[in-house]
Amino acid sequence: MDALDIASVVPAMLGLSILLLWGVLDWDDCLSEKSAWDTLAWFAVLVGMGGQLTNLGIISCSGMPFPVMLGLFWNGRPITYYVMLGLYWIELQTALSEHVPVKS
Question: What is d(CA 18, CA 24) in angstroms, rounded to the nearest whole number?
Fold first, then answer.
């Protein structure tokens, strides 16, 4: 939607409005989809948080190789190396062990 300079939410809300006005959907149908609203709320939070992390430069910093990242924080003390190594290890373990539980 960048070519038209329209936010992506505008056509989605327009489509929903048309479906509601034509009677294809009614408001009770929309409200009964609890899992869809839950998913929408969580993804909105994640997208907002991702945007803020990008604005702060944290995303570009976390994507650097470890030696480059260590060079940014190196102050000549070995403890800095071990703290950064520990944080990197925790991040790696978290990334490998995280999973999204599936509802059955």
Answer: 9
